[in-house]
């Protein structure tokens, strides 16, 4: 229970620190850059998922063919 309390204290202090950093122009630029990086990562992840999805259908069809041949 004590470790959970330390974790919660760290999270709260981190949010407070991020709030104060975000109030400065440099901090705002930093968080904008982090936000752009996260958006780019999300788009890349989504594109990769959608590109791999048709391959899954081909794989399932191949497995179905193998099971019906036996």
TrEMBL record:
What protein is this chain from? Uncharacterized protein
């Amino acid at each position: 229970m004590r470790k959970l309390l330390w974790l919660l204290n760290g999270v709260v202090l981190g949010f407070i620190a991020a709030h104060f950093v975000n109030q400065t122009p440099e901090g705002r630029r930093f968080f904008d850059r982090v936000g752009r990086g996260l958006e780019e990562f999300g788009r890349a992840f989504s594109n990769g998922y959608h590109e791999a999805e048709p391959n899954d259908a081909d794989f399932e069809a191949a497995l179905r063919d193998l099971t019906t041949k036996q």
